[in-house]
Amino acid sequence: MRCKGSYAARIPLLSRGGESRGVASAGVELVKQKQFLNQHDDGVTRHPSAAEERSLAFSSGNRLLLFILLFLSFPYTASPQTRESSSVVAAIDELNRGNIFEAIHKLKLTLQQNAAPQAYLYLSGIYTRMGRYDTAYRYLSTAMDDNPVQAAHYEQLGLIRRYEGCRVEAMAAFRQALSLATNREEATLWRHIGEVHVDLLEWDKAIDAFRNTLRLRPNDAMARLALGRIYVDRNDPQTALNELRAALEISPAVAGLHAVLGRAYRAAGNSEAAIDILTKGIEKDSSDQESRYLLGQTLLAAGSTREGRQILRDYQQMQERIEQTNTLFEAAVERARAGDLAEAEKALREALGHAPRYAPALQILGTVLLNRGNVQQAVETFRQSLAVNPLNSETYLNMGAAYLRLGNLNAGFEMTEKALVIEDQDARHYAQLGDIYSRVGRPDQSRAALEKAASLKSAPAYRPPDPYGSEGRRRDNAATVREICGGPPSP
């Protein structure tokens, strides 16, 4: 991704706080208007209960997102202002329980009720890990406008810039955070700085940064894994093993740890230990292709030819399935964009044959089915997609449209509302909301929603969304392999 100018040039733009405040309340205001729909007699069965909705929306797909979010050093325990805000505390409680959608909802309700800078910061962190960097920056800019001298704000800015690929800007932000940090915050910041040095191939500086992390927090498994990886690459397996064994004792579930340990043991000449740790890595996560490949190579080198060849065949078959799934998905998107929905559906179903829980393919298939007039099938497909990824506003929007075609205005409203909770800057959401209000005889609310949609469409940077392209930027081979292998889903 192309960086958005130098770090210094971006700081003055952090005065755009009013923009975030205005949109934060737009979607959650709908919560107060749910009752009129419940009173409207449309002659159809109501949508599932709130408990059933939560069971669907807060599925296991959120757990990995929660696990990742815990690596963000949110300032919750360090900030008296956060402790004083009971509404923010309630939202963070939802976050810690894995209820990411409900956490977003409560944080935005908090912003509607009062200006809570910490709520903006938490939202920025959540949207960062969802890959929605523009939205994350928008919330962060408001938090920084209210209180520009918090280390946590610059740390979050650094994370956004690093994930965007803007390494120089990320380093500048992390250094600024370090100058403002407390002792408790410094350890995480040094690790972030080390990670950027790794991105920049500055190995000695990376080692120094990770050592600073361990000086302040010796039980930081991520820093020890990073050091171990560097030492393996430098052909210093014994030093690598010291760090990696410590990381394993601290946190055995850290992603990538077993593969790097296997490399270190193999480099140290201990094939037996390498085979053992790589086997455990695959047992813990069947989608760990790196460990699978290394295990096959190690078995061959140790003379276990038949076992090694079988593992490598498994690896190759998996790679082929990944390639086939991605190829079929891309072909389906192109066919859908070209208007050939029948061929798009065929390719998507074939892709889902390889990866039945692949949320991007499920979401696009639902859209194709909806546009082909197979509305009930579309609803069921969207429901499957939400069970894997309950944080996709596009799925909620299209599921709402499907319910509207079925005449279920209550369900259509609830799905549109959920789309707005996640994404409150999409003109289509307000246009659909305006349609619903019009159908139930609420002309004032309909007019307001349609005016909001028109306002968003009139913005200079507005581009009509691609109904078949919403998932493209969030896909990678790691996501595909997890779905094929049945491992934990990606956020």
Major sheet: none
Strand tally: 0
The arrangement of helices and strands along the chain is HHHHHHHHHHHHHHHHHHHHHHHHHHHH
pLDDT averaged over residues: 82
Global Rg: 24 Å
Extract low-pLDDT stretches: 5-84, 473-477, 484-491
Shape: flat
Q: Between the first and last Cα atoms, what is the distance in angstroms?
A: 20 Å
The class by helix and strand makeup works out as: mainly alpha
* Amount of beta strand: under 5%
Tally of separate helices: 28
Explained architecture:
The protein has 28 helices and no strands. The chain has helices at 7-10, 17-28, 34-39, 50-57, 61-69, 80-84, 86-96, 100-113, 117-129, 133-146, 151-164, 167-180, 183-199, 203-216, 221-233, 237-250, 257-267, 271-284, 289-301, 305-337, 341-354, 359-371, 375-388, 393-405, 409-422, 427-439, 443-457, 477-485. Helix 18 (271-284) packs antiparallel against helix 19 (289-301).
In brief, what are we looking at here?
With 491 residues, the protein is mainly alpha-helical. Helices cover 73% and strands 0% of the residues.
Spell out the key features of this protein.
491 residues; mainly alpha; 28 helices; 0% strand; disordered C terminus
Layout of helices and strands:
Layout: H1 7-10, H2 17-28, H3 34-39, H4 50-57, H5 61-69, H6 80-84, H7 86-96, H8 100-113, H9 117-129, H10 133-146, H11 151-164, H12 167-180, H13 183-199, H14 203-216, H15 221-233, H16 237-250, H17 257-267, H18 271-284, H19 289-301, H20 305-337, H21 341-354, H22 359-371, H23 375-388, H24 393-405, H25 409-422, H26 427-439, H27 443-457, H28 477-485
